[in-house]
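<instruction>
Derive structure tokens from the sequence

<record> Sequence and structure tokens follow
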Amino acid sequence: MKRACRPAARRRGGVSGQRVLKAEAVLVGGVVLALLCWEWPSLRREVRIWRMSGGFRAGHRYP
């Protein structure tokens, strides 16, 4: 009986493309989360200033 052939990449110890994509997604997600945590205080401050200046209701009052 003949054994089923496995993909050559697995035999050579390579990494499948799907695993690489998952690793990249985890890495990008971690970077985005770290950036959001780093910028959160300044984003809150900017939103507060924007709301004090009128938000959407201000129209074109402030250039």
Observations:
- The chain has a mean pLDDT of 82.
- Residues 17-52 form the longest helix (36 residues).
- Helices lie at 8-11, 17-52.
- The chain is about 65% helix and 0% strand.
